[in-house]
Amino acid sequence: MGYHAPMKAVIPTLKYSLFLLFAGMMLQAGGLHAAEVAVLYQANVEIGSRDDERQRNQAFTAGLRQVLVKLTGSSSTLNNPGLASALGRAQSYVETWAYSTGQTEGNIMLQVAYYESEIQRLLNQSGIPIWPQSRPETLLWVVVQDELGQPGLAGTPTAEAMDILTSVQEIASQRALPLLFPLMDFTDLSAMQPALLWNFDMDAIRGASSRYNTESILALRIVRLLNGEVIAKSRHIFRDRIQEFEIREEALLPFLEGSISMVAEELAANYAILLSGISDSSQVNVHVEGINSRDDYAGLMSYLRGLAVVKDVRLVSVEGNELQLVLGTGGQFRQLIESLALDKRLVALADPVRTNDQVSMRYAWQSP
To answer: What is the mean pLDDT of the chain?
Structure first.
C-alpha cells in the first residue's frame, strides 16, 4: 500500500545512521558499467516431496514464472494473455531438472533449467521484449533508523543492517538485477554524510556516486517506529530521471520489493529488446576508428556479433585505422545505442544521423 503522508513529524525526533556493506564484500572500486547475468533461464523452487509428480509440475510452472520475470524485468509480464497457455504446460519448456537440499534442514529444492531458444520464441511470439544478459549495475545507498535510535558504524554494519542488505540482494536476484555496493572508505564517508542521504540531497548522492561510474543509483531511507511499523522511501536516479516509491507497512519486505521492482522495470524499459524487431528495411552504417591491429578487428567483430540486438555484421570498407560496417538490427536503433552506451567498448564520437532509411553512427574502439 502506498503512503505519501508528510514525515516531518516523525523524522526530526530520531537520530539516523548510514548502514552499508563493508569493503570485504564489495565489488572492485571504480564500478563496472555492466554485469553479465548467467542464470536467466534457471530457477530454484522449494518443493514438498521428491516423489509427487503433481508438485513437481507445479514447481515447473513456478520456476517458469521466475524465469519470465528475470528475462523481462517485470512481474506484469505474467499477465500477458500470450503466456497463459505456456504456463499451463511449463514442463514442455524444461530442459533439465534436479533435486537438492535447501538451506533449512528438511527443505527440498527443485533446480530447473529451461530451453533458452523455446523461451525466447515464446516471448517473441507474444510481442514481449527480452532484457539481455548484459545489465547495468545499480549502486545502492541505504540509511536506516531503528526504533531505539541507536547509530551503527559504517563499515561495521549491525545485524539489522546486514539483514536488510541480504534481503535486498535476494529480491534483486529474483529480477536478475545486478547491485553494486559502495566501498565505504574515506572517500565515501567524506562525500556521503548520513544527513545528506537522509534528505535525498541529489547533488551529494550524484557526487558520491560519480566514482563508481554507473548511471543507475538507488537510495533507500528506512524508519522503524516503536510499534514495529516501517516508514520508508526510495529514490531511483537513472540519468536525468528520478522515480520514487514510498510506503508505510507493518513489514519491510513490501518496501524492498517495490523499490527493486521500480528499478528493474525502469532499466528493462530502456534495455529490453524485441527479438523479431520492427523493420528490417533500414540500414545502420557504423564508422569505427581506432582499429590498429588484427586483434582490434577480431575483438570488435566478436563484440558486435555478441550483442543481442545485432543480427548480422557486414564489413564495407577499411581506410587506415577506420572501418565502415553495416549492422542488421531489425530496426531497433534505440536498443542498439543503449547497448553500446552500456558497455562503453565503443565510445560515441558524434550523435547518430538519420537520413531517410539510413542511420549513420561514428564510434572509437576501446581495446580491452
So the answer is: 83
What pTM value is reported for the model? 0.76
Instruction: Give the CB-side neighbour count of residue 140, counting CA atoms within 13 A.
Output: 26
Contacts 24+ apart (CB under 8 A), 308-313: 308/130, 308/132, 308/133, 308/134, 308/273, 308/275, 308/339, 309/132, 309/273, 309/335, 309/336, 309/339, 310/336, 311/277
DSSP state of 24: G
What CATH number belongs to 283-365? 3.30.70
pLDDT for residue 194 is more than 70: yes
pLDDT on residue 18:
56
Main-chain phi, psi angles of 38, to 5 degrees: -105, 0
| Class for the domain spanning 11-37+133-271 | alpha beta
DSSP line for 176-191: T--EE----SHHHHHH
Instruction: Summarize pLDDT for 8-46 with one digit per residue, the tens.
Output: 333 333 455 555 433 233 333 333 457 888 889 999 999
Q: Helix 253-271 and helix 159-174: axis angle, to 10°?
A: 40
Instruction: Burial-class residue 84 by CB neighbours within 10 Å (0-12, 13-18, 19+).
Output: exposed
Kindly state the cell numbers that stand for 353: 544521423
* pLDDT tens readout for residues 244-292: 999 999 899 999 999 999 999 999 988 888 766 544 545 789 999 999 9
Please report how many Cα atoms fall inside a 13 Å half-sphere around the Cα of residue 248, on the Cβ side.
Answer: 8
Answer positive or negative: Cα dihedral of 149, 152, 154, 157. negative
| Domain map (residue ranges) of the chain | 11-37+133-271, 42-125, 283-365
